[in-house]
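Duplicate of #3305? Posting structure anyway:
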């Protein structure tokens, strides 16, 4: 199974971490913005990462990839089967992919991607605005709803935790981590998730790339 993209993307990282937690062997084939790799474009015709290929089956979008892998390898179960728990897991993935990644993405893109990978200045005013206005309510929400168990759904590891933890890696790369005083539950959650091998391995690799 091949995943096309870069783990620096929160969507690619989510798929890779999910695969690691499931014990599924995924091969990462590095492709960057604007890649014309024919195999990648066959999997992702609009050039969005991640793309995915398994034998003669190809698909793109992290949610679609995870849905395929969960159906193919239902154990260990990371997407609950109980209706309410499944719905909440889907919601937390959507929150992570849109609300949290939108806030963090504006910061990461303008402070890291634009200058480092595109060779141009980022919109630092937009990054500052996102950090001051868009990010705080996104963090407040998780602090409010995170159960005492430290897991978002069913008091155990699920896709919800993996999806939410992934964008926080990009924030980590720009020096932003949840404040343990104002967001103690969230800070502990992020620290716990990023220490898991499914994340720690990629975080270490990404730090080396970004340090070049």
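Output from current build:
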């Amino acid at each position: 199974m091949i995943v096309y993209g870069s783990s620096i993307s929160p969507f690619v990282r989510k798929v890779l971490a999910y695969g690691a937690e499931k014990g599924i062997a995924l091969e990462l084939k590095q492709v960057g913005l604007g890649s014309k790799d024919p195999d990648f474009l066959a999997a992702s015709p609009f050039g969005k990462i991640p793309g995915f290929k398994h034998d003669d089956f190809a698909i793109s979008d992290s949610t679609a990839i995870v849905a395929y892998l969960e159906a193919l390898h239902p154990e260990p179960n990371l997407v609950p089967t109980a209706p309410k728990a499944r719905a909440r897991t889907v919601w937390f993935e959507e929150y992570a992919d849109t609300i949290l990644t939108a806030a963090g993405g504006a910061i990461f893109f303008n402070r890291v991607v634009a200058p480092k990978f595109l060779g141009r200045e980022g919109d630092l005013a937009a990054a500052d605005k996102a950090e001051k206005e868009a990010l705080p309510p996104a963090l407040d929400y998780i602090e409010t709803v995170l159960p005492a168990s430290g897991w978002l759904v069913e008091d155990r590891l699920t896709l919800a935790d993996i999806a939410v933890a992934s964008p926080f890696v990009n924030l980590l790369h720009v020096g932003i981590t949840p404040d343990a005083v104002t967001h103690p539950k969230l800070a502990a959650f992020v620290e716990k998730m990023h220490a898991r091998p499914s994340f720690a391995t990629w975080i270490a690799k990404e730090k080396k790339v970004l340090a070049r």
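Confirmed duplicate; merging threads. The helical segments are 10-22, 38-43, 62-72, 83-117, 124-145, 159-173, 184-195, 197-211. Strands lie at 2-5, 27-30, 51-54, 57-60.
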